[in-house]
Amino acid sequence: MNLRLDTDVCRLFGIRYPLFLAGMAGGPGTAELAAAVSEAGGLGFLGAAYMEPEAIREAIRAIRAKTGAPFGVNLFTVSLTDRNDGVEAVQGRLDAIRDRLGIERAGAAPVRTPDRFEEQVQVVLDERVPVISTAFGLLPERLAARAREAGMRIVAMATTVREAMLAEQAGCDAVVAQGAEAGGHRGTFELDEHPMGAAVGTFALVPQIADRVRIPVIAAGGIMDGRGLVAALALGAQGAQLGTRFLTAAESGAQAAYRKALLGSTEESTVITKAFSGRPARGIRNAFVREWEAGGLEPLPFPTQNTATRDIRGAAAKQGNAEYLSLWAGQGTRMLTDGQRAADIVAEIVGQARAMLG
After folding, report:
1. What pTM was estimated for this model as a whole?
2. Do 61 and 31 contact (CB within 8 A), yes or no?
3. pLDDT tens for residues 79-137?
4. Does 109 map to a domain?
5. Rounded CA gap, 209 and 161, in Å?
6. Are 249 and 349 in contact (CB under 8 A)?
């Protein structure tokens, strides 16, 4: 097998190295981090799912001010229609946590989440971002057609072979094969079949997807260094996507309490939970997760649960209290480094991979 770092992904996306930064929404994935990864030769992504449209525009322009290299924006394609059945019981449970944090109770008021997806995509189109990627599903065809007309590349996240085949049929330029080891939200399209998200491991998922699609496959989940990158290439991937590895980078937006929890965690620390957002996501098991599980309540669906818990997460961040933050992380946290520059992380990974490939 003749493995090399100059893969089809590099030519397709105009990058030096087959390394993608995961689109980490909610704070860690800053414009500075995305720009640093792109400038270092990878493909940086802005995790923009929770951002206001104009904030996305500002972040895109901030990235462009720091690098002329290609980059991308990642969005969630799930419907943002709130479902408030059971909100009184859920808010009652959350109010007990709010009391501990010293913040105002929510009571039984309905939860309202603004749906800005169309506006978010419009900003990405207006700004002619080189790459748009999606989680939870595919970009609607009418929007995908506009992206292609603008010369943009389209990437989708998949957690099963079937999802990857649907991405190819929809005209995606590449697919991210997200193994169960990956931190953050599972990209599973339909939760009816997989209520906790499809949980196929990276080593099992990547070769099966690579055997069944013609578009490039990007491996994700548990990849933290050059060894993981080479393993991904050996399995048939054309590159690797890393998120957790960059959470403690100097340019990351992760709060100090979050970083400390990450650096103190192990491969056994994470669980897949719906407690924070209503969708399955892998993160460090903390007091919030334990208390929610002990309560025996089903969370509200996404995005309603996510909106309902936002004030708790915000208060915990201000108080530096990691026990009530959503500590998204994959299973490779023992390989994290503290405060390393993103460019140095990229160089280290590429150096290791080159040494292994001779």
Report:
1. 0.96
2. no
3. 778 889 999 999 999 999 999 999 999 988 899 999 999 999 999 999 999 999 999 99
4. no
5. 5
6. no
